[in-house]
Amino acid sequence: MRGMDDRLQSLAKQHLMLHFTDMATLVGEGTTIIDRGEGSYVFDTDGRRYIDGLSGLYCVNLGHSHGEEIAGAASEQMARLSFSSNWTVAHPPAIELASKLADLAPGSLERVFFTSGGAESVESAWKMAVQYHRANGEPERRTVIARQDAYHGVTMGALAMTGLEECRAPFEPFGVPAVHVANTNPYRHPEGADEARMRDALLAEVEATIEHEGPGTIAMMIAEPVQNAGGCLVPPAGYWQGLRELCDRHGILLVSDEVICAFGRLGTWFGAQRLGYEPDMITFAKGLTGAHFPMGGLLISERVAAPFIEGREIYLHGITFGGHPVGSAVALASIEIFERENVLDNVMANEPLLDDLLNGLRDIPIVGDVRGTGHFWAIELVRDQETRETFEGPAAEWLLKDVLSAELWGRGLVCRLDDRTEPIVQIAPPLVADRGTIEEIVQILREGLTVAAERMSERPEPAPAS
Ligand SMILES: Cc1ncc(COP(=O)(O)O)c(C=O)c1O
């Protein structure tokens, strides 16, 4: 086993370029090489077991034990028709899948355009919005309103909408005009203590932004039901309904980016259903196939589809593998498993447990806030619970990379440690995880965070105020 690991480590160091990774660390120290999965667990090439506390990257929604069944569906489809496109022609699995998704989706979202992943779905939404407005005599509507810190992907169009400065800065300017408004972090918003006041302040900011940009220049607003980056930012009650009203009043399309929040992450098929709103488009990917195949898409309302269906416009967009027959067959098989195993019910049943156990960690002095929904939770870490003073720069890096990474991964928990905003620990277990797994996750968090809190005396001090 070890021999295999050494060989793979050496090949990885020589040939593999990892995503968003400090390659000097890879080359110096090697990396964890995940070799196989089972249920809510993965195993590395040394046979060490980890809880897959992030569902891969928020996508292994069905866990790791349905591979054989899904491989059966994939194999049957490959043997029958391994590829045909969705350019002009169609094939049975894409048609069946589009129809199934229209059934599961909210309200009038009846039409589906398939892609290979999340960023492509987001860019497809923008092109659809631009062409929709052109067809309706408003070609100047091109700007997107997105939210600070939000991650919508990193290809150039999606990156324009992404609100993380660190990801954007080297690549500006962008061809897609975008402006960013505040996100819904109640722990950091000045009105965060009062949900209704915070909602009103957020909506007032969106409206002021629309007025400032000129309503006739705005194509769409994009937001996640619960924003990932920043740490599971649940919106205040009425926020999405307020966005809906503002968008309608100003002729702006409302896009719900559900690349993470769809397919049960929040306990419903789509996040919009959990929060009670109807967007004009939904972007999705990740969980659609339980991550057994890379696939995404765009759900489109009948109103937005109308100019295309009526022949006033042809959608100038296509992706070779969008709607791949094998991916579509895999997605259909995955949805069958979601339904057969009542996966959404499991998420709803686990939510109060996660809420209760994670909030129980607040006695650890560096736990500032705990927030989330469904199987999607974050803990925001602070130097001081009273003042909410955060960790920045080298201190954040020390906390997450030097201390917590070793303490949590070392105890067998894969989770996200992110300091692109205030530092957070995030967990998003597979939607099939049971009570025992959740209790094990929280126990490891307790042990790791307690050690980190005890090591605070070693931490780099914040830079003195100048
Ligand atoms: C909300 C959201 N949108 C878009 C994307 C981009 O998806 P992909 O990595 O498949 O391009 C992500 C990826 O994490 C995401 O979380």
- Which outline best applies? globular
| Alpha carbon gyration radius | 22 Å
Q: Estimate the strand proportion.
A: 15-25%
Q: How far is the N terminus from the C terminus?
A: 54 Å
CATH uppermost class of the largest domain? Alpha Beta
Structure description:
- The chain is α/β, with parallel strands linked by helices.
- The chain has 2 domains: 32-62 and 342-458, Aspartate Aminotransferase, domain 1 (Alpha-Beta Complex); 68-340, Type I PLP-dependent aspartate aminotransferase-like (Major domain) (Aspartate Aminotransferase, domain 2).
- The protein has helices spanning 2-15, 23-29, 55-58, 67-80, 92-104, 118-135, 156-161, 165-168, 195-213, 239-250, 271-275, 302-309, 325-340, 343-359, 393-410, 435-454, and strands at residues 34-38, 41-44, 49-52, 109-115, 143-147, 178-181, 218-223, 253-257, 281-284, 296-301, 367-373, 376-381, 413-414, 416-418, 424-427.
- A 7-stranded mixed beta sheet has the order 4-10-9-8-7-5-6, with helices on both faces. The chain has a 4-stranded mixed beta sheet with strand order 1-2-3-13. The chain has a 4-stranded antiparallel beta sheet with strand order 11-12-15-14, with helices on one face.
- A hairpin with a 2-residue loop joins strand 11 and strand 12 (376-381).
- Helix 6 crosses helix 12.
- It is globular and about 65 Å long.
- The N and C termini lie far apart (54 Å).
- The mean pLDDT is 96.
- The structure holds pyridoxal-5'-phosphate.
